[in-house]
Amino acid sequence: MENNALVVLFIVVAAALILxxxxxxxxxxxxxxxxxxxxxxxxxxxDSGLRWVMPFVKRLTKVDMxxxxxxxxxxxxxxxxxxxxxxxxVIYYEATDPVKLKYNVANFSLAVTKLAQTNLRNVxxxxxxxxxxxxxxLINSKLRQILDDATDKWGTRVVRVEIxxxxxxxDVTEAMHRQMKAERLRRAVVTEAEGDKTARVLKxxxxxASAVIEAQGQAEAIKTVADAxxxxxxxxxxxxxxxxxxxxxxxxxxxxxxxLISIKYLEALAAVANGQATKIFLPLDSTVAMGSVxxxxxxxxxxx
Length: 304
Prior knowledge:
Blueprint: H1 2-22, E1 25-28, E2 32-38, E3 41-46, E4 49-52, E5 58-64, E6 68-78, E7 84-95, H2 98-103, H3 108-125, H4 129-134, H5 136-150, E8 156-167, H6 170-252, H7 258-272, H8 286-303
């Protein structure tokens, strides 16, 4: 009986030890780091996988290394030009040192939220309302730099800070809307006036260009007519000059051409026989010319 009792006791103790040992197995996931403490003192950091720590003696604490989000509640901030605006933000951070994150700060989310609220007042308070509304990137950059430097000793890195909204009071918002509407109306009037001015200028330039082209066309037409008239007169004068030269040469060479002289006599007779002359003077050698005329007349009759 005693042996049986000892066996049962041994089995119970062994089973209890196995169960206790089994509780020491822990699974560290891929995005986590494990901090192992031995009797309350930090011992080492383990990576992801199946880990076993001695129960009641060692303890394994997991630290999430993924990027986290902290929402900064809305708060009222006074700008440089004494306007109260409501500002809220979102902070994105990730752990870089799990040991510092675990042991250097008790509640990181609360700490970074309070730190962001304080620095939001400082950053936005240095800007006037118009600059604050149009310079969110500047505010985000400054706030991210301040928080990143402050949280470095906590083993984290502030990835980015995003200002969700900057909301002025209702009366200021209404005044801004009226100002924006007036500015848009002014731009519309200016744009319309500039368009009308441009249209008038273009129309005047078109009329001017049309007049210039028309004047140029008329000038070219006049020049063409003048050139044609000049060419005609030059051609006629050139022909008459050549005829005179031939007559002059025939007379002075002592061997005038009867036909040429006869033609000239006929032209002269046509001029003086217009019915207004009372007297006709014939040169001394008119008989020769008249003989030539008679000969030419007979020649024409024979041909006909």
